[in-house]
Amino acid sequence: MVRVDSGGVLRLDEDQQKALQEEGRVILKASAGSGKTTTIVGLYLHLLRKGVGTHEIVAITFTEKAAAELKERIYRGVMGEEKLKEKERIVTALTHAPIGTIHSFCASILRDYPLEAGVHPDFRVFEEVESDQILTEAVRTYLDRLNSITFRGGGGEEVASFERAMEAMGHSLGEVRRRVRDMVRLGRTFNRLAEDWKVVDPGTLAQAVVRLERTRDPEAAMADLLWGRGILWKAYWGGWMRRMEDLEGRAEKVDSPWRENLLEVISRLKFYISTLIRCRDGREAQERLEEMLSEISLRGFRVRMADPLREVYTDFRRSFRILRDDVRRKLLKYLQNLHLVDEELALTGDFLLLAKGAVEEFEKQKGVRRALDFGDILERTYRLLKESPRVLDDLSSRIKHIIVDEYQDTDLLQMRILELFSQKGVQLYLVGDPQQSIYRFRGSEVTVFKRAPRTFSLKEMTLKRNYRSRRELIEHFNSIFSHIFPTSSRGEFEITLEPMEPAGGGVEAQGEPVEAIVAVSTRAEEAREREARKIASRVLSLLEEGYRAGEIGILFRNFTHVGVYHRALKEAGVPHVLLSGGDFYSSQVVSDVVSLIRYLLFPHDRTSLLALLRSPMVGLSDPELYRFFRMGLEALDEPRRREVEGFLKLLEELRGNLYVMPLRNIVEDALERTSYREVLALVKDGEEDLANLRKILTIIEGIELGGIMSPYEVLEQLLLRQEARTREGVAQVEVEDSSTVKLMTIHGAKGLEFPVVILADMASGGGWRAERVLYDEELGYLVPPLEADERSWRRTPLYGAMKWYIRQKEHEEEKRVLYVGATRAKRKLIYSMAVKASSREEAYLEIDFARDDGTLASLLLTSLGLRYIRGSRTEELQEELQAALWEAGIPESPAGEVRPPKVERPPEEVLDISEAAERAAFAPPPVSSPRATGVALSGGVGLGEVLHRTLAVWRMGEEDPREAVDRVGLPEAMKEEVTEHLHTLQGSPFLELYRRLKAEGYREMREVPLSGVVGSGYFQGRADLVMVGNEVYLFDYKYSKGGDDEKLREMYSEQMEKYAEVLERAYPSLVVHPFIVVIPGGRLLPAARKGGNLKKNIYRDNFN
């Protein structure tokens, strides 16, 4: 937040003013809400006052949106500076000032020095999707070439590695391709320099594990045993020994007939633990563990409920179960595969050689297209600066200062680029907060921030004053996160808490600053539904307390279960909007505009043409696109052919205006002449799409007004912004809009703030994720071999240890995600979680938070010391959980269990579904999957998919099926079978109904896309619609060789119910009749309906 006085002059506090005096060689830790943007603006103005030119200051932001906001605030600051000389000249120069993302900065360097960089002067930038497609093709081409050499009996190192990889993967070329592609993707995300890629070293991995000094994790202990000195192994079993001694002491004090039996079991277990503590060899450890499992068992050992030993016995049984699970599922399984470690390392070396070969092929294919992707922009710039001292000297003579915002989200390669400038005397000013580093999935590493003081010889300074949140909230943040973040950093990816200080005159508010909503059930779905209803109830009460809807943000770790909360809010009558957070530049509207510009500039770009023909500008269906690209315009029906011809002529006309008119005007012309806006207005979420359209047009206009006149450069800027889309908010129906509650991801909310924040679905997520390729930018790659069944990969000790180490990094980032979510709150923070209780014994339920350490809820609760609770009922568990939170200063939120009443609304205006469906019949973006399974035919296409393609073009009842089959262009081997199946529809109940509807004046629409939030998640599909008045007959075709129709109906009724629900939500006046059409035979199966607008059994009334 930029603070200015009434005269427009920037106001800085003491810490910010001190930070300005150190105008170079500084890294500034700026806590949440501490005014880092204010400080950056102040620094920029300070440099201008000293006579530094705008062209001598490079300001790097995470997104172009942030860059535009920073430039605007600097402009306002300049206008408020009374003593600034040559103010008008500076204001003019700001228009062209180098303020933008690291990608735009590097792209400008490559444009200025194309010859030295070895790039084409007019290189274009690939979109991420297109780059991934070309990578996939490059991997396929490269491995196919090696495969053909192998068949011819050729040799060479690459061929030998390929043969060994094929053998290890069960001679599955697909498995080899997937692993090579994964290796390249991971490497280019975390370390784009292929020459740095390496195979993991077991010793280095062991040292990294030991540095963390965690003794409760069996994988860490095992890694230390095999490749270290056994320190963690000894400590791990030492912890279990102390636990057994504690239980033994408690049992000795209890008078019970079962005491001696329990003491004997504990004594035997202590004996095996003592032998394991002394083990220093993996083979020996495996033998001792197997003996322990075979000798010790609790089978048949029961202690009665009323026995005084019951509590000690229950604790021992739980501890033994945890130990047994660790041994069976982890330690023993890994040690049994100990002999595979050398094979695993050799296999990884083979795959690494193949990955580097695939990268070379990838570079060739990009060179042919004269294109770079976003990773190339950074990589080529780094190589240029490193290998061309003259270029670096030239740039360093012109650039005096580099200011980097959000430095905690910088990756290793970006750090190396900055390091080269720093070595030439360029003054660096780095600003960020390691506590908010949450973009590791895009290559960012918190270690980069932690190493910066040593790497660049920087002075560390801190901003602690929080101007965002009320005092009580700041005290809560300091208290709770002092337990969540480690007190001392044991690994470079771990951070310690930087406590915040409340700013004087900060936010004041009434009521509890922190609350908790808890719902407990033995079923996760039921618990989540109860939580959602409680949230809806609490939101209603907040509105009654005087908060506006727009002041409430409901934040999620991810949107996996967002449908449950959306439905609860809707039932309660809460006005709300679901914001996709960081997806503005990957939204369909923006993709359509970018595809239009790309095709106008590159008329041979078939991918862009495909996207345009699928978009609302034309609206071709998948079958129509298939025919058009396979057989040309003549394969389309007459109306469609005329429409496509007219659109292609329009594109040629627009291309002729590229260098005559502003690009925004050209795009506007295309939208106007294709009725693009009108179509958007008819589809679901049209209001948000239109807002996105207005926003992208404004952005294009801003780029052009900023001095970029070439359409190529405008496209480049848009693609660069797409790369940083993770933080670019969609054009809402604005975030600041006061009329709706906002549902967002925590990542999407970064940089925003709300008076009230509800962290919802905190218990979602976590769990072990097996991966076919492991990669760490420090350690290297690991590729495990396949199991004998060739369906999964073997978990060797090396795999387990490395996976554990990577998981620790992910776990630390989850702590930072929780911090970011919580610190968005200004007045009130509400933690909300749906907790599933599990049955461990006949009469008890339990919740083990310590074992589920991958969720935000477990992070919060274990930090409060609540690791395990047990009770006889879910109500008892919920009461105990709420009591523990209350003791920690987090009272229960006044959210009732009662389902909120529905709010009566005025009748909605009924739209013409015929027109809407006709104009909206374009495929949702951008990847489609086969609709039906069935019998696999040539090319991997299912028979169900082929039947759908043919039915989409067949004029039912008016022409022979053979004519439709010929138009689709199927291979000869498939034509007869498809034609035979379609012939069985002649005279069928399905075709009889079609003829009857036609006589009543029906209107049919083929392959209409239906999508929306149904149940607990997003749903999309396609079906044929036939309309008669306000009734819609919905048909979906299912291939079945025969069998029980009732089973088929049961299998697909839920899918048909979703189709019907999507239609009825959009058009409440409709009566929807969903049918399953069975092929061959054309039998009609009316889908079972749970409700909706179905007023009669159309099947019974017409055919019985």
Sequence-ordered SSE layout with sheet pairings:
Blueprint (H helix, E strand, L loop, with lengths): L13 H8 L4 E5 L5 H14 L7 E5 L2 H17 L6 H8 L4 E3 H11 L1 H4 L6 E2 L2 H24 L5 H12 L4 H18 L11 H11 L5 H10 L3 H22 L6 H20 L3 H14 L14 H27 L4 H28 L2 E2 L1 H14 L1 H10 L2 E4 L7 H12 L3 E6 L13 H11 L2 E5 L1 E2 L4 H14 L16 E2 L11 E8 L2 H21 L7 E5 L5 H11 L3 E3 L9 H14 L4 H9 L7 H10 L6 H18 L7 H11 L2 H7 L3 H20 L5 H13 L17 E5 H4 L4 E7 L13 E3 L3 E3 L14 H26 L2 E12 L1 E2 L5 E4 L7 H8 L4 E4 L2 H14 L25 H7 L23 H9 L9 H8 L3 H12 L5 H11 L3 E12 L2 E12 L2 E9 L5 H22 L4 E9 L3 E4 L11 H6 L1
Parallel strand pairs: 1-7, 1-8, 2-3, 2-6, 4-5, 6-7, 9-10, 11-18, 12-14, 12-15, 13-14, 15-18, 24-25
Antiparallel strand pairs: 16-17, 19-20, 20-21, 22-23, 23-24, 25-26
Helix pairs in contact: 1-2, 2-3, 3-4, 5-17, 7-8, 7-9, 7-16, 8-16, 9-16, 10-11, 10-33, 11-12, 11-33, 12-13, 12-15, 13-14, 14-15, 15-33, 17-18, 17-19, 19-20, 21-34, 22-23, 24-25, 24-30, 24-31, 28-30, 29-30, 38-39
